[in-house]
Amino acid sequence: MASDSELSEFLKNMEKKAFKRAYYHVRNEDAALDILQDSMIKLCTNYADKPVAELPLLFQRILSNTMLDWFRRQKTKNALFTNLSDFGSGNDDGEFDLLEVAGNAADKSSSESAEEWVGRLQTLEQIETAVMALPARQREAFLLRYWEELDVAETAAVMGCSEGSVKTHCSRAIQALSKNLGTQGIRP
Fold first, then answer.
1. What's 165's domain CATH number?
2. Domain contains 15
3. Is-above-0.85 flag for pTM?
4. Cα distance from N-terminal residue to C-terminal residue, the chain
5. For residue 10, what are the domain limits?
6. Contact, 140 vs 159, CB < 8 A?
7. 143: Cα separation from own chain's centroid
8. Does the pLDDT at position 114 exceed 50?
9. To pair with 119 at 20 to 30 A between CA atoms, which of 75, 86, 135, 184?
10. Which position has the higher pLDDT, 103 or 51?
């Protein structure tokens, strides 16, 4: 059984990666924050009595299911209601701010020039755009395998598919990212 401090530390360590994963799926910062919060509450409410070793897979599965629930609610909402904000002026760009992400790395390298920092920030933006352009299942498999560092079996369990499907999705995602980023001059 996980203690309160272990559960708190686990959630603190998972917060940024889980937010980024949710944001890549829903492409809405507020919705991603809501999904993350709901997932954390569900984990604490229903699975706090589980051992710490089981928490990562449980949390990833809860996060996936919460995102699916969000998409289902959006589909129902869009079918029944017209969002009046769709008729607005559209001044809100709704883009994710990478300055916070880049700021953490900038703190580590105080000797970095402004030109290097801007170049790194632009590269991060290009990578983020390329990842978001991937089809949903490829993006999910890629993020679970390489962002969350889950193995193939764990990723298959979280996604609810076979290990072969995970390998196929990851392979296709890597090929698409390599092609997309390669045309922009970004090489591994």
1. 1.10.10.10
2. yes
3. no
4. 41
5. 1-80
6. yes
7. 7
8. yes
9. 135
10. 51
Contact 184, 125 (CB under 8 A): no
Instruction: Tell me if 86 is assigned to some domain.
Output: no
pLDDT above 90 as % of the chain: 49
**In angstroms, rounded to a whole number, what is the distance separating the alpha carbons of residues 88 and 92?**
10
What are 89's two structure tokens?
């002026």
> Tokens 């990842």 appear where?
131
User: Per residue in 22-61, pLDDT tens?
Assistant: 998 898 999 999 999 999 999 999 998 999 999 999 999 9
Contact by Cβ (8 Å): 40, 53: no
Place of tokens 């801007």: 118
C-alpha–C-alpha distance, residues 50 and 30, integer Å: 29
> For residue 26, what are the CA distances in angstroms to 78, 105, 140, 168, 180?
15, 25, 12, 23, 21
